[in-house]
Specification:
6-stranded antiparallel barrel
């Protein structure tokens, strides 16, 4: 009888994690992971602390007790017991061909469509769009803990792992630039500041967001041994700097059962694992949105015959590239071409200089798009 209270606490925690999953949990199937193993090609795989987990149907989901439908299993364990999971999948998750086709494009993170800027057109795969991710605001239960900066850094690494078309601009550099001009960070999303970031840095989009949590649930089985689970929700908005419009609202949260740790420092480990799962979920959706942006750069200065651009070698431009000069309308639309500039040299961190080879002399802040790439 002296262990009865602990048993009850364990039972309550189990039922809570199994039955009371919040409605904003991302329970949708994500796109296939690019794992080399053919057994994982159609599975959703996430990497947490250098270990891979695969999302599978829970073989015990049909049993009484409120078992969760999906569980995360280490890849090694999944490959060793593949047949048992395959049997469950064939029995419970054999959708029709049409259903599979309609389900594949669904994003794993919750997405809310913002004001449409332009319908994404095929982008130039070699040229990177510049993006800045601000440090996320923390909405946490303990004021002495902050995870926003760390989550933002993890998200940058996750997007870089999934896409080669994004060039992240250092937020500290942007913040210092705004402070020198006495511009408050609270004005970061205003049209005037967004236009300034586009003209000066060539930034295509900014990502702002906040965290809710992490919230930790613990049980103690002994003096030093214990179990902790954590849950966190990350919400963010992707804003187009050219138009000032919201491209997409994204949110994700980790399944509480996936962020479960035991032993010493179990609470801290559970928090970090919860963030890892949520960031991995968001990284897929964010990389897809950023890849869909139309590439462009701006003319920073015109001096005699030289035309200076706010994009260069890091962006992916090459000496000899020819760019169309268009009026500052919507990027991606068929705006009238005023002339052409050919890249002749690079300078600075990511800037270039070119010469006008066709058309009328451009103005500062005119927009340029890639016309063609010279072959040598």
């Amino acid at each position: 009888m002296p262990r009865l209270p602990a048993f009850i606490l364990l039972l309550v925690l189990f039922l809570f994690s199994a039955c009371s999953t919040p409605s904003w949990f991302p329970i949708k199937k994500g796109p296939p992971h690019l794992a080399k193993s053919k057994e994982l090609v159609d599975k959703e795989v996430v990497i947490i602390d250098k270990e891979e987990y695969v999302k599978v149907l829970n073989p015990k989901a049909s049993e009484a007790g409120g078992q969760p439908k999906y569980i995360y299993v280490p890849v090694k364990e999944y490959l060793a017991k593949k047949d048992s999971f395959a049997t469950t999948a064939s029995r419970k998750e054999q959708p029709s061909k049409d259903a599979r086709l309609s389900a594949e494009p669904t994003a794993p993170a919750t997405e809310k469509e913002g004001s449409s800027v332009t319908k994404p057109l095929p982008t130039v795969p070699d040229l990177k769009k510049k993006v800045v991710i601000t440090h996320f605001d923390d909405r946490i239960t303990q004021a002495d803990e902050t995870f926003g900066d760390w989550a933002a850094e993890k998200l940058i690494k996750e997007v870089n792992r999934r896409s080669l078309r994004t060039l992240f601009v250092d937020f500290e550099m942007v913040k210092e630039f705004l402070e020198k001009r006495q511009i408050s960070l609270s004005d970061l999303e205003t049209p005037k500041v967004l236009q300034l970031l586009s003209e000066v840095f060539g930034i295509h989009a900014i990502v702002v967001g906040h965290l809710s949590g992490p919230y930790v649930f613990t049980t103690k089985a002994g003096k030093d041994d214990g179990t902790a689970s954590a849950i966190i929700k990350i919400e963010m908005t992707v804003v187009d700097t050219f138009s000032g419009k919201t491209i997409k609202n994204l949110s994700a949260a980790n399944p509480i059962i996936a962020a479960k740790e035991r032993g010493t420092f179990s609470e801290e480990k559970a928090k970090l694992k919860a963030i890892d799962f949520a960031v991995a979920d968001l990284g897929r959706s964010l990389a897809r949105e950023l890849d869909g942006l139309n590439w462009f750069c701006r003319i920073a200065k015109v001096e005699g015959e030289d035309v200076f651009l706010n994009a260069g070698k890091l962006t992916g431009l090459k000496v000899g590239d020819v760019l169309n000069i268009v009026d500052p309308g919507e990027p991606g639309k068929q705006n009238q071409v005023k002339g052409k500039v050919q890249i002749s040299a690079f300078f600075g961190i990511d800037a270039s200089v070119g010469r006008l080879i066709n058309g009328v002399k451009p103005d500062s802040n005119d927009v340029l798009t890639l016309a063609k790439r010279e072959r040598f």
